[in-house]
Amino acid sequence: MTLAISGASGKTGWRIADEALQRGQAVRAILRPGSLLPPGLEGRDQLEVVRTELGNSRDLSEALKGCSALVIATGARPSVDLAGPLKVDALAIRDQIQACRAAGVTRVVLVSSLCAGRWLHPLNLFGLILVWKRLGEQWLETSGLDCTIVRPGGLSEDDGRADSEGVVYSGPDTQESNSIPRRLVARVCLDALDTPESIGRIIEVTSNRSQPQVPLHQWLSAMA
The dihedral of CA 167, 173, 179, 181: what is its sign? Predict the structure, then answer.
């Protein structure tokens, strides 16, 4: 079956698509009409590109038909539009939930953020972004879909860290700082899809060199 990835042109989204393709997964990359496909994805086998506005539930549900799961990697980018986080990190999540229901997609992984739901945090200077991220999470949690929420720390562009650092996993509202390369976030999202025990969980992730490289399923088994 095909894996759908919304926000696949973003810095985390394209890495999720790239990692999925490397694992032999067919990918349907969902992009906004004006978004550019990153050069690293152009011409790749098993990659299909669909362009639609996330707020267009009808077109989005059509884009999701035939897909086995959706990874939501959309996120508001800093801009002068302080309503951007509300539109992208909350309302667009609601629209994607509705589209999943219409298309019969029941498995969803959402890339959120460490400290989602916090009011007193510097990131909230950008349109209360952490508040709206938590609202998007809550809508997904109560949607009835089989969901996993991944909350990464500060996102690093250094892919070289991905093979030399271990992931620090925790439950919700546990970690407050530290970073993780986007490439590792992509791998965690895909590992979550392959791990039924991750359903219904919020998983916070950062990474460092001193952390052993433990697979997600092993950490979840230890938690159980």
Answer: positive
**Has residue 108 got a pLDDT over 80?**
yes
pLDDT of the residue at 131: 97
Please write the tens of the pLDDT for every residue from 42-72. Answer: 899 999 999 999 888 889 999 999 999 999 9
CATH architecture of the domain with range 2-152+199-205 = 3-Layer(aba) Sandwich (3.40)
Delimit the domains of the chain by residue range. Answer: 2-152+199-205
pLDDT for the residue 117: 96
Taking CA 134 as the corner, what is the angle to CA 31 and CA 212, rounded to the nearest 5 degrees?
85
Which helix (H) or strand (E) segment holds residue 21: the answer is: helix 13-22
Strand 201-208 and strand 166-170: the pairing is antiparallel
Q: Strand, helix or coil at 169?
A: strand
